[in-house]
Hints:
The chain is an alpha/beta fold. The chain has a single domain (35-198, 207-272, 280-301, 353-370), classed as TIM Barrel (Alpha-Beta Barrel), CATH 3.20.20.140. It is built from 13 helices and 10 strands. The protein has helices spanning 65-75, 88-97, 122-136, 146-149, 169-178, 203-208, 222-235, 244-248, 253-262, 274-277, 281-290, 315-326, 354-369, and strands at residues 36-41, 44-50, 53-61, 77-82, 106-108, 141-143, 182-184, 241-243, 266-269, 295-296. The protein has a 5-stranded parallel beta sheet with strand order 6-7-8-9-10. Strands 1-4-5 form a 3-stranded parallel beta sheet. A two-stranded antiparallel sheet has the order 2-3. α3 runs parallel beside α5. The longest helix has 16 residues, at 354-369. It is globular. The N and C termini lie far apart (47 Å). The model is unreliable at 374-383 (pLDDT under 50).
Amino acid sequence: MSSAxxxxxxxxxxxxxxxxxxxxxxxxxxxxxxxxxxxxxxLSWSAPSVNGVAVGEAVNVVAKPEDLLPVMDRQNIxxxxxxxxxxxxxxxxxxxxxxxxxxxxxxxxTEPWWGRFSEPNYGQFQAEQIALAKRQxxxxxxxxxxxxxxxxxxxxxxxxxxxxxxxxxPMWEACGSLGxxxxxxxxxxxxxxxxxxxxxxxxxxxxxxxxWSFYGRDFPSNAGLLEARDRVFARHPRTQFVALHVGNxxxxxxxxxxxxxxxxxxxxxxxxxxxxxxxxxxxxxxFFDKYQDRILFGTDATPYDTACPQxxxxxxxxxxxxxxxxxxxxxxxxxxxxxxxxxxxxIYGLGLPDAILRKVYYExxxxxxxxxxxxxxxxxxxx
Length: 383
C-alpha cells in the first residue's frame, strides 16, 4: 500500500516527489528548430509473441497516421521510421498503412523472421526474405534484443542463440548488398544485468518491471553481448549498422567512441537515452562534436497525437528532446512527469550549434536512408 505517511513519520519512496529549489532557466521549446527524422519509433508490433519471440507474420498497428501526423506537424517532425514493421503479410500491411499511404512522412523497416529460425537452410531463407521485403517497400532491417536474449535453438526453448551466430551471416550480407541499413539493439542498460538491490540505480524501474532484468540464469553478460555484436560489425564491413540507444552503452561514452573509431560502418541513435547523455553533458557535448556525422535522432516512442485517448507520448516528449539538444538549460526532467522512468536524476542541455543540429535532426538519417534532399534540411521545407 502506498501512503505519504506511514504512521511514524516515514515516507514511501514511490510517494517522494521533491520539488527542485534551483532557480534556473526554463526554456519551453515548442518546435524543433529544423526538420526532423525520428529514426526510431514503434508504430506496430509483430504478433503473436511467445517467451519474448515474435513467431507469426501478423502485426498489431498501435497508432494510425491520423493520430500521428498532427503531432508530427506541430513538432517539425518531417518523417518517422517505424522500425518494427514485421514480416511477410504483416509487413505488406504496415507498408500499405504508413509509407504507401503517406509517402515522405513514414518509412518502414522489416525484421528477421524469428519463427522460422529452426528450419533447415534458415540463413538462405532469411537473406531471400530481406530482398523480398525491399520489394515490398521496406527500407531497412530492425534487429530487436530478441537475438542474444530471447531467441533459442528451438525458437523459444533450448540454448540461447548468440548475436554473432553464423546462420545470420547471409542476412547481414543481404542488407549490405541491397543498401538496407540495420538498426540493431542487442543489450539494455548496464544496470539491467546487475542484482536488483539497493545499489542498483535502476531499482525502481526494475522493481516495477522485474522481467526486464537479465541478471543470472543463462543470460550472457552485457559486455559479452556487445563483444558478439562487434564481431558482426567486423565481419560485415559493407553493411551499414545503426547501434541503437547510443550503441547500447550510453553509460560508457568512451567505449562507444572506441567502437565508432574502430568500425566506420556504424552510426548510433540517441533514442531513449537522453536520461544517460544529459547527466554527463560535458562528455556528451564532446561526443556530439566528434561524431556529428554519425549520430541520429530517435525517440523509441509512439508519438500519438495529444487528443488520442490511448496516448503514451506526444508533444511533450519531443519538446524535451528539443530542449536537451537546443538549449543550455540545467537540471530538468528527461521524460514527461510525474516520475522519470529510468531513475531519479535530471539532465542538462547541450546547446548544440545549428550545423550539428541539422545533421542530427535530419541530414545524417537522410543520407543513410538515401532520401532526396539529404544535402541539407532546408531542401525538404519546414514541415
